[in-house]
Specification:
alpha+beta, 7-stranded mixed sheet, 6 helices, globular
Length: 186
């Protein structure tokens, strides 16, 4: 069953988020320490005004426990949602920081999605993708978008099988290349 996330889901979501976004987590946290990064991500997740917020997430429950999540938001909100992260990083580094723009304003963007390893292969990821696309359409968007690591050909094939196509944009984040993929939704 899918439901909107809550702040209390953080203990389940943050490990999944770390797995989903990989090295980007360290860039967003401003540290290379895994425990510290998880603590910082959890702080942002529990807040309501940034890209990592529980307010932007939905979870898949198995026996009332979140075992998968999808984090998505309107592309036009990205600058606003990134501001708290950028302010923290700017203070930490002592100079202005601007995060890489991952999406366009007219898109509904899937920032990250992950399913617990014990639950993979059961269609949970596909159900979360469908819920994300439905949410995009309900919010009036005609385009759903996501990024896929160019080295992850398996993930790209899964997205292509669900109707996503690469639009030719390559974005480098945390030293890794990501391909921008889009799908029309209605």
């Amino acid at each position: 069953m899918i439901r909107k996330a809550t702040p209390e889901d953080s203990k389940y979501i943050i490990p999944l988020m770390m797995e989903a976004i990989g090295t980007i987590a360290y860039e967003l946290s401003g540290t290379t320490n895994r425990d510290e990064t998880m603590r910082i991500l959890e702080q942002f997740y529990k807040q309501s005004d940034n890209r990592l917020s529980w307010k932007n997430s939905m979870v898949w429950l198995q026996e009332d426990v979140p075992v998968g999540y999808a984090l998505a938001y309107a592309g036009y909100k990205l600058v606003e949602l990134d501001r708290p992260l950028e302010e923290r990083l700017s203070t930490l580094q002592g100079n202005p920081v601007q995060l890489i723009k991952e999406t366009e304003g007219e898109e509904y963007y899937l920032d990250s999605l992950a399913v617990d390893s014990s639950q993979r292969g059961l269609g949970i990821g596909t159900k979360l993708m469908k819920a994300f696309e439905l949410e995009a359409a309900q919010f009036g968007f005609s385009i759903a978008s996501l990024l896929v690591n160019v080295a992850n050909t398996r993930a790209k094939q899964l997205y292509e099988a669900q109707g996503y196509t690469a639009d030719g944009k390559i974005i480098t984040i945390a030293g890794e290349d990501y391909e921008h993929m889009v799908k029309k939704v209605q």
